């Protein structure tokens, strides 16, 4: 398929260093491979990174698990509605259905590709319980507006921050904005990785307590602790039919060192994004929206959109990139086009004109820390050649 003499440049690759490898080997030699001291340390380090030792950080084996646990702890269930963006990965919405509640999808603001707060407010019904904003590509949602709407209507807010480490809004890290809970992803292609993993972050002690119990089979030792001076090590009580969502120490070992590098990772991503922005400014392309001055974009994704002046179609663009030996992707095929969501809620593209247009004209190009400067130049040259052809 590739006409390039160079090796194929994948769309995404993790950057795993010697520190991560040594920590994983240390875990393997320790005899404690599942959830234990390293998962605990990773949670503590994460709270310290957020700058709030009091914030509860709950390590889980995926962001999907964290989103599910947060909604479960909020008591979301049948008859409830949860509002989110159509321009996301299905994980954001599927967790709502796990609990028997319904998903109400709304369109994006074409300027930011993030959920449009005005459409959120218009979608509220007496059954609405929660809003799930997604910080698309790593650009912060207008959380001031979302939290305002939630306060006004008595709704919960769960941030899907799978793309948003270390994104900031008004100089505050996402995760500290004052929503009920925030969930980060450490999937292989995210801004840091544990292979598979996630972190549920909350200041709500009740929510944290429930999520911790449900993370591991509905097992509770704390209930017993309160009444007895000494709990036998083998004793536990099952208080609910919980899940198996704990993060292993093997994965946490990776996370401890990836987290130490997150600001350096972001700086490199920023550098690549700046090189792309400069190189593509004169092309018939809409560049990705930037963070406001003084705030941080995590640059998880670099999404280009063909402008109305472009002569090439999106699919052909991606095909030409692959022919040049460069992997690209599309984020996302909106949920309103996916058979399950489309058919369950009878959705049509006309209801989501901005997401639909963004989908039809957008593609994501490689942007990750393991790219060399030569890789970046190669991507730039290919995009310029194809866009100007
Ligand atoms: C990756 C991703 C998730 C799911 O993360 P996992 O850790 O793979 O479960 C959820 N939402 C969005 C927007 C994502 O990109």
Automatic annotation (TrEMBL):
CDD domains (UniProt xref): AHBA_syn
Look up keyword Chloroplast and say if it applies.
Answer: no
N6-(pyridoxal phosphate)lysine modification sites are: 190
The yes or no answer to whether the keyword Nucleotide-binding is present is no
In terms of superkingdom, the source organism counts as Bacteria
Spell out the Gene3D superfamilies in the cross-references.
Aspartate Aminotransferase, domain 1, Type I PLP-dependent aspartate aminotransferase-like (Major domain)
Where's the active site on this chain? 190
Which PANTHER family does its entry note? DTDP-4-AMINO-4,6-DIDEOXYGALACTOSE TRANSAMINASE, TRANSAMINASE
Similarity-based family: Belongs to the DegT/DnrJ/EryC1 family.
Q: Could you tell me what this protein is called? A: UDP-4-amino-4, 6-dideoxy-N-acetyl-beta-L-altrosamine transaminase
Question: What organism, scientifically named, is this protein from?
Answer: Kinneretia aquatilis
């Amino acid at each position: 398929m590739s006409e390039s003499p160079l090796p194929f440049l994948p769309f995404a690759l993790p950057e795993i260093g010697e520190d991560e490898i040594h920590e994983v080997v240390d875990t393997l030699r320790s005899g404690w491979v599942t959830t234990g001291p390293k998962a605990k340390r990773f949670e503590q380090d994460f709270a310290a990174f957020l700058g709030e030792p009091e914030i509860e950080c709950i390590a889980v084996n995926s962001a999907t698990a964290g989103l599910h646990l947060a909604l479960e702890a909020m008591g979301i269930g049948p008859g409830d509605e949860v509002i989110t963006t159509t321009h996301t990965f299905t994980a954001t919405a599927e967790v709502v259905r796990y609990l028997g509640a319904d998903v109400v999808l709304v369109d994006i603001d074409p300027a930011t590709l993030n959920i449009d707060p005005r459409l959120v407010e218009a979608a509220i019904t007496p059954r609405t319980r929660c809003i799930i904003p997604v910080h698309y590509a790593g650009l912060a949602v207008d959380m001031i507006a979302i939290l305002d709407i939630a306060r006004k209507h008595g709704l919960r807010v769960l941030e899907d921050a799978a793309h948003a480490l270390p994104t900031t809004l008004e100089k505050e890290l996402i995760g500290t904005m004052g929503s009920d809970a925030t969930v980060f992803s450490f999937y292989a292609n995210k801004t840091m990785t544990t292979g598979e993993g996630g972190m549920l972050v909350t200041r709500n002690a009740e929510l944290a307590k429930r999520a911790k119990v449900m993370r591991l089979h509905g097992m509770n030792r704390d209930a017993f602790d309160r009444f007895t001076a000494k709990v036998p090590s083998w004793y536990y009580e099952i208080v609910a039919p919980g899940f198996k969502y704990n993060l292993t120490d093997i994965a946490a070992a990776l996370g401890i060192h990836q987290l130490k590098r997150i600001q350096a990772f972001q700086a490199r991503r920023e550098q690549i994004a700046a090189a792309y922005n400069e190189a593509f400014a004169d092309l018939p392309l809409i560049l990705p929206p930037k963070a406001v001055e003084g705030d941080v974009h995590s640059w998880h994704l670099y999404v280009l959109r063909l402008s109305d002046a472009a002569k090439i179609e999106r699919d052909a663009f991606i095909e030409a990139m692959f022919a040049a030996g460069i992997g690209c992707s599309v984020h996302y095929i909106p949920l309103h086009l996916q058979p399950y969501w489309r058919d369950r809620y009878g959705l049509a593209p006309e209801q989501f004109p901005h997401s639909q247009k963004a989908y039809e004209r957008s593609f994501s190009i490689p942007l990750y820390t393991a790219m060399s400067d030569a890789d970046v130049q190669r991507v730039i040259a290919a995009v310029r050649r194809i866009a100007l052809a």
